[in-house]
Fold each of these.
Amino acid sequence: MWVVATAGHVDHGKSTLVRALTGMEPDRWAEERRRGMTIDLGFAWTSLPSGATVAFVDVPGHERFVPNMLAGVGPVPAALLVVAADEGWMPQSAEHLAALDALGVAYGLVVVTRVDLADPGPVAARARAEVAGTSLGAVEVVPVSAVTGVGLPELRVALDRLGARLPAPVVDGPVRLWVDRCFTVRGSGTVVTGTLRAGRLRVGDELVVAADGMRVRVRGLHSLGTARDEVSAVSRVAVNLRGVARERVARGDALVTPEAFGCTELVDVRISGAPVADLPAAGMLHVGSAAVPVRVRPLGPDTARLRLARPLPLLVGDRAVLRDPGRRLVAGGVTLLDVVPPPLARRGAAAARAGVLAGLDGRADPVGEVRRRGLVRAGDLARMGVPVTVTPVVGDWLADDGHWARLGARLVAEVSRYAAEHPLESGVPVEVLRQRLGLPERSLVEALVRAPLRVRAGRVVAAGSGSVLPAPVARAVDRLGVELRSRPFRAPEADRLVELGLGPREIGAAVRAGALLRLAGAVVLLPGAVEQAARVLAGLPQPFTLSAARQALDTSRRVAVPLLELLDSRGVTRRLPGDVRMVVSR
Ligand SMILES: Nc1nc2c(ncn2[C@@H]2O[C@H](COP(=O)(O)OP(=O)(O)O)[C@@H](O)[C@H]2O)c(=O)[nH]1
Ligand SMILES: [Mg+2]
């Protein structure tokens, strides 16, 4: 199936044409039929000579109902621009064409209707000329009369040609179904309809109402009036939702695949069709089936920042219409360049941003997107409509090469700075580096660490080296060394350590720096004590008692007990039954 929307001035025969082609009534409301005028969207379908099915979204032509027209056209990639031979090119012929152009609709036909009333020639020439300069480009023009039936077979063939040109939809991608109708069916509950432009829907699927994040379940699906288990794009589809009050969903809402879309209130855009300086400060943004008030902040000659009155699930590259409701006309075409733009807080930020936007065209650009953001999650990029082609640095974090290298250099500098500020600590807590580098996650700090730095016990430390001791500590350790030289196993008493200025923190630093050997708590010796003790003890008759070792080492139990335990643990001595030890020969 493919879907085409009608377009054109009121009373030019759009609904009559849809009726003639499909045998279905596009004007659904009694009021529409009584007044003979389309007010809201109508839906109908027919088979073409090729066997393909085409569904029509019939739109109102009256200028009062242009918002309804835009809701119908917004999600539909092809259009049938209808002009009456006897009335000619009229204001909404022009406005509807401007809307199609703003939306970038590239596939369409011009149908000149009511040819039983006037020669289609002049109108066909005018319409062809008007359309030529738009996104529709060179189009086929088909003259018809719904009254006499002239031209209808040719129009069916032309529709087939148009359908064959349409690009294949992305069926495996996420779903974003812009709701164009919502109603209640007795016994079934809430039903929404829309044009499924990409993706696939199945009964049982979970979807999200984008605006408020409400999860909904697909209870049933209809397409072309028939119940289906599955509907693939492109299709008109009616979705029966489980457990959703009718009031919770309305035209302009979007049902989206969970986690696949972000919702944004701030977008940077390119404006076509009018200079940005001529735009109203406030307008109405029509995108998909939604219409949202926006504030316009000009940035460059053809770029602007739009602040939306409510969030929408928008993607880079989306097209939209900016309308001036006061003057009732299309103010400009909108191409979304950035759906998560940076704040413009600093002086000169707006001008800089205009410079960036000048280089964007709305096509997904993963490498450029990562470069501009420095650091971004792959999932967040995908939710902007930018497929991820860059390899993550850790987890799903993508980093620009230059930005990453600069962060790495800053990490090294911060490690040095911290070491200078905290000379007695070994290394920098990862969390401190995360904060100093302004990173969102600790895993990024760890991913930045390069040799000779490494991560140990939640800190970034220099491999191999302990910290360099601050001078007073180094001096105190030197004095201790002198005192211990003659009696190397007489660990200094607590009061001596205090005299030397060696508190627990200083001792810890000296131990980490390898300047002292800790036996227990504040019991410290010089680092060579283990080897020295091994030599002394090897000279004793084996095995030996604790008392014999204490005397040979010329020390107290306070030192001998933990020293022997240390020697045991290092395999220098072995403890035997009867509380004796022997030196293990190597
Ligand atoms: N003579 C003639 N009248 C037509 C033709 N198509 C539509 N009409 C009439 O034009 C009027 C407007 O048609 P309608 O389909 O409602 O126009 P819409 O507003 O564009 O949907 C109706 O009175 C139709 O009967 C045609 O091909 N020939
Ligand atoms: Mg109509």
Amino acid sequence: MDNLSASDRGGLRVNVTFYGVRGSTPSPAEGNRRYGGNTSAVLLERAGDPPIMFDLGTGIRSWGLTQPLDGTFRATALVTHLHWDHIQGLPFLAPVDRHGAQLDVFAPVQERGTLTAAFAEFMRPPFFPVHYSELRGDIRFTGVSDHDFEIGSAKVKVRPVPHCGPTVGYRVDLDGTSVVYISDHQAPLHLDRVADSVLELCDGADLLIHDAQYTPDEFSEKALWGHCTMEYALLVARESGARRVCLFHHDPAHADDDLDRLHAEVRDKAADYDLDEVISAREGLQIQL
Ligand SMILES: [Zn+2]
Ligand SMILES: [Zn+2]
């Protein structure tokens, strides 16, 4: 793991680790090896606090392999929405399948039915050999839309985010630092405004992890597919006063060399947006706050 921009404020460090950074669908390929092909999965950790996962995409499997398999596993998942690329890792999160394990899943309130019913529909034969209810650990679902709550010493703020179907973003304030996670964000057609709920989440954040799926040309072709441009992520940061942006949820069509080039072009504009740093999310990256 690389360390990036570490700043020791005299307290315990908050670590943000990326296990999956790809949007839409897993895309393992020779040309994607450096950034990675697993879908959305980011871990927030501080010594003494239970781990918090942002989303349960396919990347979460490899983190699960590092966790206890004796039923002592405890964790919280903050899920932005129920599209496949954000939940497909749950059936492969090995420590949950143990008696005594506990996983708290927060996810947006659904338009119809409960979250438990939605996950039971997603994880059952013939789509998967094991029914959700057969997992041996205790999974507790809580629907959220516009809430504030606490997990240990972390303060969590949830607000709606424009996308396709019920979707939220999360802000976690922990040990004097703030991390905002907005994985999928439908920008307005003219890429010129930011929803008030998003501005509230991002207000002065130390780190904003944000959707960066498209180039301007791609956005013009797919303007209603639920996403935004890389440069729009910078606009969200500037309008909200966030200091650092991490470009995330890469399009499966963007290979490593494409992302290098596209992100370099966006990074050149950081000064125009009054940002301290523009970071490229890739599997294995660890940011210490
Ligand atoms: Zn997505
Ligand atoms: Zn989505």
